[in-house]
Design a protein that fits this description.
By secondary structure, the chain is of the alpha/beta class. Helices cover 37% and strands 28% of the residues. The N and C termini lie far apart (57 Å).
Length: 218
């Protein structure tokens, strides 16, 4: 169990899954830089993060900007949208009759990614909700602004295991204050932190190593 002062930002999971160095630069070194992608993403999320918004439509309750946390995982954050579907297997909610099944929905500006970074972030949200509401959440959805469609995500044991493993590593790096090195990849060009990270320098030889090698040859 983590103390609240040691909680990490849940949104950082997506950064970490995409690039460990990017996460460390943002969350450990407090480095940040805007580009067109990040600004568009912030504007897109503002529509979802309407804190305190609750709407009921028949057998569906919609909440936005719900604050969540988990002492077990050591994270806290905000859900874009959490839907509550009427279900006998659900939970009770204050001011609403019946039982309701929680269903998290995360909004993303772009399109579905090749990696599962978005799914990991969504699963972590569900795990926080399960701990807070004492319930089971089998799945949720990612809504992508590019195609205006939802992608269903099943919260399998494998995906849950990835969430736990990554958060354990994140906490270890946080405690050490260590920013890991990574190999440059295609996605580096689109990263807003490329001028801060300078990934191309990781390909160059360290001066000390170069001198040592030269002396050895001689």
């Amino acid at each position: 169990m983590y103390e609240e002062d040691d909680f990490l930002m849940l949104s950082g999971l997506q950064h970490f899954a995409y690039c460990r160095r990017q996460w460390a630069l943002i969350h450990i070194e407090q480095q940040w830089a805007e580009n067109e992608r990040t600004i568009d993403g912030q504007l897109f999320h503002k529509k979802a993060h309407d804190a305190g918004f609750t709407e009921k439509r028949g057998d569906l309750i919609i909440t936005r900007g719900l604050h969540i946390k988990s002492a077990t995982l050591g994270v806290s954050g905000i859900c874009d949208v959490v839907e509550f579907h009427r279900s006998e297997q659900g939970i009770t909610l204050f001011s609403f009759e019946g039982r309701w099944q929680p269903y998290p929905v995360e909004y993303k500006k772009g399109e579905p990614k090749e990696n599962n970074a978005d799914a990991i972030q969504l699963c972590a949200q569900a795990m926080c909700l399960e701990e807070m509401l004492l319930c089971d959440i089998p799945g949720g959805s990612l809504f992508y602004g590019q195609n205006r469609r939802r992608t269903y995500v099943e919260f399998t044991e494998g995906l849950r295991g990835q969430v736990k493993s990554m958060l354990t590593e994140m906490h270890e790096l946080w405690e050490k204050g260590y920013t890991p090195k990574v190999k440059p990849k295609k996605g580096c060009n689109a990263c807003s932190l490329k001028e801060i990270c300078v990934p191309r320098l990781s390909k160059t030889k360290v001066v000390a190593s170069y001198i040592e090698a030269s002396l050895t040859e001689k």
